[in-house]
Amino acid sequence: MYHSAGRAVVRGTASALMLLLLGGVSAAQRSQLLKNVELCNGADRTSPDIQVDGCTALINSSAQTPQSLVIAYNNRGNAYTAKGDYDQSIKLDPNYARAFNNRGVAYQKKGEYDRAIEDFDASIKLNPDYASAFANRAQTYLNKGEYARAVQDYDEAIRLKPALEAVWNGRCWTRAIVGELEAALADCNEALRLKPDVAATLDSRGLTYLKMGQWGSAIDDYSSALRFAPKLASSLYGRGLAKLKKGDTTGGNADIAAARAIDANIVGDFTRYGVQ
Asked: What is the pTM of this model?
């Protein structure tokens, strides 16, 4: 699942920064400021430090409006994947929904789920149509084992942004865990229609087939997932279980051993998913 398959949270994308007050600067200064805007917007993906440097240069410059400072702090927070700059962004503009969402993601990654939910709540209150915040709150409820609440938030995220593959996959996974297998299968199929060949979604559908007792289909999906992510412990373990069910003791035990070597908690995870 998310621990093993790395299903993605949905972070607010880097906001476009608008430079104002450039009338009194030289051409060279203007060029450097525009370069820093590009870097702070994430134009150079080679290193997060480059984005941090660009945003920091903008924050320290005298050419920024209050709103561009809010966005620069938020974007630097994205690069840090830490909450400090989100705090500053929120302090400067407490009505900026994206910063609350992104700080919630940072808390979620740290395992501080209740604090994450508080931030997603705030983000949604500020922008009730913010699909990413619903999706991230759903993921957090999923991590807490509050599956019904997770499904409700995935429902809302799908209503708001039906072309987002990750939310269909998230709802597929959640429904598979609680045993709503036909609905889970439909969700995974839609996720793969929107974005084929995603290891996490193939892993989710593999779990669905495993719980349906369709061993061959489970093996096929897990094998496909492993082609894209060879060390995906949940796919190795699930495929191992399916192979054992089909009588392939050697292959099944080999997959299970490989999965346990990657993730020592994988057996407990599958027990929680209702599979042993």
From this structure: 0.72
Domain-located, residue 173: no
Q: Is 244 a domain residue?
A: yes
CA 51 – CA 117 distance, rounded (Å): 27
Q: Which domain holds residue 116?
A: 1-10+30-138
Beta strands in 35-183 (DSSP E): none
Provide the residue-wise pLDDT of the chain in tens; the chain has 276 residues: 433 454 555 555 445 554 443 444 455 556 676 777 777 877 665 455 667 778 888 787 766 677 777 888 777 777 765 445 677 778 888 888 998 998 898 888 878 899 999 999 999 999 999 999 999 999 999 999 999 999 999 999 999 999 999 999 999 999 999 999 999 999 999 999 999 999 999 999 999 999 999 999 999 999 999 999 999 999 999 999 999 999 999 999 999 999 999 999 999 999 999 998
Structure tokens at 208: 């669905």
Largest pairwise CA distance in the chain: 77
Of 138, 155, 172, the domain-final residue: 138
Question: Of 121, 138, 155, which residue constitutes the final position of a domain?
Answer: 138
Distance CA 265, CA 215 (A): 23
